[in-house]
From TrEMBL:
Residues 324-345 are annotated as: Disordered. Residues 335-345 have a biased composition (Basic residues). Signal peptide: none annotated. The keyword Protease does not apply. Keywords: Membrane, Transmembrane, Transmembrane helix. This is Integral membrane protein. The chain crosses the membrane at residues 20-43, 64-85, 91-112, 133-159, 179-197, 238-258. It comes from the Bacteria.
Length: 345
């Protein structure tokens, strides 16, 4: 985009940049742009497709799998834990308390505690005096052993150390210091020689190769890599703009080719047809259905009333035939009831 906006002028190196940078930048950006645009378009298409699949397929599928996992794995284990394992654990805990804890407490209280008290009494009354006596005897024996060891072992050892071993050790140390000085001098001479040989044969040639070959080549490669990175970012942004434009173009084409014709057909054709069908067919049919329903309901209610009156009359006739006329009943009232039942029928 920067190349299109700026006017065409001779390539002049900006401040801090050489001619090599300017010569590398334009070809690298052109090549990277040609390579990156298809990749960016494919990437944007994959992103749109992934969002569509996520909203329409993956998310409902995930919800269904989550519900299925709960139904298959979680809820059975929860029911097993609540209704089987917890009561079983409580029963086992009660059984363990009855079979283990209570006997253990009784054993500790009625067996181990008396034994402990007896052991304390034995330690205080028997073992302590015997221990004191044995300690006194042992102290005497230890004093005798210490006196014998001092005059039989320590005093002769000190005399041998002072009169024999110390002079021999001093002489050996002096000899060792001389040998160490000699070895150090030899090693220093060999080290200096190896240092100069290594410096002349390896370090100086390597330093020259590094300074006059590798550093210039590294600078050139760094410039190429930097410009390639800048070109890649520039091409990625330009490809994003192109992808956005292509997406908008496809969206506009889809709208005018599919959405707008469907909307026009819905508004101009289907909606008037639906209103016509509703006004000419559905509403009269519904009104006729409501009228028929009201007539059927009225006839049904009349038939049910007549049936109830007939049942009451039959029940009254059976009661009179089996039990006779009830006391205090008057023929006038019975006649009125019969006339009312006949009128209702």
């Amino acid at each position: 985009m920067d190349l299109e906006k700026r006017p065409v002028r001779p390539a002049v190196a900006p401040a801090g940049e050489g001619c090599l940078v300017v010569a590398i930048r334009v070809p690298v950006r052109i090549v990277v742009l040609v390579l990156v645009v298809p990749v960016r378009l494919a990437w944007d298409a994959l992103v749109v497709g992934g969002r569509f699949l996520n909203g329409t397929v993956f998310r409902p599928l995930g919800r269904a799998l989550r519900w299925l996992g709960r139904a298959v794995f979680v809820w059975p284990f929860v029911g097993l834990w609540r209704h089987v394992l917890v009561p079983l654990g409580k029963a086992l805990a009660w059984l363990g308390h009855v079979l283990l804890v209570v006997p253990a407490i009784a054993f500790y209280r009625y067996v181990l505690t008396p034994l402990g008290h007896a052991a304390v009494w034995l330690y205080a009354r028997v073992l302590t005096p015997v221990g004191h006596v044995l300690a006194a005897i042992g102290a005497g024996l230890w004093a005798g052993v210490v006196w014998l060891g001092r005059y039989l072992v320590v005093v002769p050892s000190v005399w041998v150390w002072r009169r024999v071993l110390a002079p021999v050790g001093r002489a050996a140390a002096w000899c060792a210091r001389g040998v160490v000085w000699l070895v150090t001098a030899v090693v220093d001479g060999i080290g200096v020689a190896l240092y100069w040989i290594t410096r002349m044969l390896l370090v100086l040639p390597t330093l020259a190769v590094w300074r006059w070959v590798l550093v210039p080549a590294g600078r050139v490669l760094a410039v190429v890599a930097r410009e390639a990175g800048h070109a890649l970012g520039h091409a990625w942004r330009v490809a994003g703009y192109l992808s956005l434009a292509v997406g908008r173009l496809l969206g506009t084409l889809f709208r005018w080719v599919f959405v707008e014709p469907v909307r026009w057909v819905y508004r101009r054709v289907l909606t008037p047809v639906g209103h016509t069908v509703r006004d000419t067919v559905l509403r009269p049919a519904a009104e006729a259905g409501r009228r028929v329903g009201r007539g059927v309901g009225r006839a049904t209610r009349q038939a049910l009333a007549a049936a109830r009156a007939s049942v009451r009359q039959v029940r009254a006739d059976l009661r009179r035939a089996l039990l006779g006329e009830p006391k205090g009943s008057r023929s006038g009232g019975i006649g009125k009831k019969r006339s009312r039942a006949r009128s209702e029928m």
